[in-house]
Fold this sequence. Notes:
With 101 residues, the chain is an alpha/beta fold. Helices cover 31% and strands 23% of the residues. The chain is built from four helices and five strands, in the order E-H-E-H-H-E-H-E-E. The protein has helices at residues 12-27, 41-44, 50-56, 78-81; strands at 2-7, 31-36, 66-68, 84-86, 96-100. A five-stranded parallel β-sheet has the order 4-3-2-1-5, with helices on one face.
Amino acid sequence: MKFLIHINTDSELISYEAIALALTLATFDHDIQIELGEKVLVLLNNPKSRIYGMIQSLALYDLPKAYHNFQAVDALDKVIQLSLQSGSLALDDYDSKLYFQ
Length: 101
């Protein structure tokens, strides 16, 4: 199955659970795409947050870069920027869409 996981929260717990779900589904050979909303910027700017490290590990699970539409992407660390790509997605391409807010 193809899953789109959209995360738009400044809650570390909710974002952690969303990415943990994505990594678990990827382990079972599902196609996963993560999309990040503006509220996640607060967490990505904090190197001590769990999501900061988890986003960097997407490649370890053979997951594509996370999509975003951040206006201030240049303010993020270069390490985080390497795990992100800008743009928008075609929602019809996914069997299931999960929203974490």
